[in-house]
Amino acid sequence: MILTLKRNVSKSDIKRIEKKIESYGFKAHYSKGASDITIGVIGENAILLREFFEADPAVKTIVQISKPYKLASRQVHPEDSVIGCGNKKIGGGKFTVMAGPCSVENRANLMKTARMVKKHGATFLRGGAFKPRTSPYSFQGLGEEGLKYLAEARKLTGLKIITEVMEISQIELVAKYADIIQVGARNMQNFNLLRELGKINTPVMIKRGMSATINELLMAAEYVLSEGNQNVILCERGIRTFAQSTRFTLDISAVPVLKKESHLPVIIDPSHSAGVREIVPSLCLAAAASGADGIIVEAHHDPKNAFSDAAQTIDEKTFADIMKKLKPIAKAVGKTI
In degrees, to the nearest 5, what angle opens at C-alpha 121 toward C-alphas 275 and 98? Predict the structure, then answer.
């Protein structure tokens, strides 16, 4: 249920309404837009509280939330969310480029790649310290050593860091180093993990599961939001279809659908969608044209010798060309890089 408050509402009235909502065992979600102030009443059967607020002098209108995802919905939060990461922002008219190796391999390789992506305009360095791999015999990452290398690369280049967490026991450690914590596609419906990530303030980017619907992605975001962490980013990384020409199929239509349904920023992962480096540039440009808020792309100073995902990792020349072509496309849809 959404309470839209009158324009002249006082801070004391807002606090009073929030306290009243919470006294009945529900959560109150405050949102101030350009024209309206709303309070979402979050919880099962919240509509039962309608009669308690219909005559409230501070309340203008009451609308029932029709979506199963309450806090992720535009009904509760009509305006786009902007996620702050220090002096960097995700959303709000910015097209953010996150780039780097699939996995942190060693200090020397990471520093070379970090300087490379920084040189050509990336603002975030991606790199896995803990790597979920299909095969147990594949490189699994360096753990905390890799996180320390990422932190050193941030200090060296000024790039913010995004890296993946795989289980609850890793959250505290990863949050110590990361600017954004990534939840991989395989963990999108690890609800216990999502709940615990909702209890911290570090931004969380959730990748869509390879067989997940858009509703399921938004419900995954709801788990984090419902625990109090409002800094959530959605990521479309390709879904399984009958097509065999690419690793997965990039659902580019997910961007406008998610933008319609949710206020959360949307990032595209062209690398895992393609699985083939020659296709990655086109998907990067398509991401910008679709209205996405950015991309997370695998790039390496020596991609053919990358420890993981070498076939889909792009080199410096390709990355530089992508960045050059992205700028006019982003500008055409009202975004800047």
Answer: 40
Looking at the DSSP assignment, which residues form a beta bridge with residue 61? 4
Apex 33 CA angle, 29 and 34, nearest 5: 170
CA dist list (Å): 241 to 211, 234, 246, 251, 269: 9, 20, 10, 10, 17
Helices (H), ranges, the chain: 11-23, 50-53, 107-119, 144-157, 171-177, 191-197, 214-226, 254-261, 270-274, 280-290, 316-332
pLDDT digits (tens, 9 = 90+) for 55-107: 899 999 998 888 889 999 998 888 999 999 989 999 999 999 999 999 999 99
Quick one: 132 and 234 in the same domain?
yes
DSSP 105-170: --HHHHHHHHHHHHHTT--EEE-BSS---SSTTS----THHHHHHHHHHHHHH--EEEEEE-SGGG
C-alpha–C-alpha distance, residues 36 and 33, integer Å: 5
d(CA 97, CA 90): 10
The verdict on residue 34 lying in a domain is yes
Domain-located, residue 68: no
Task: Work out the angle at residue 124's Cα, subtended by the Cα atoms of residues 236 and 106, and round it to the nearest 5 degrees.
Answer: 105
Crossing angle of helices 280-290/254-261, nearest 10°?
30
Give residue-wise pLDDT tens across range 158-173: 999 999 999 999 999 9
Whats the size of the chain, residue-wise?
337
Residues 173 and 273 placed together within one structural domain of the fold: yes
Residues 149 and 274 in one domain: yes
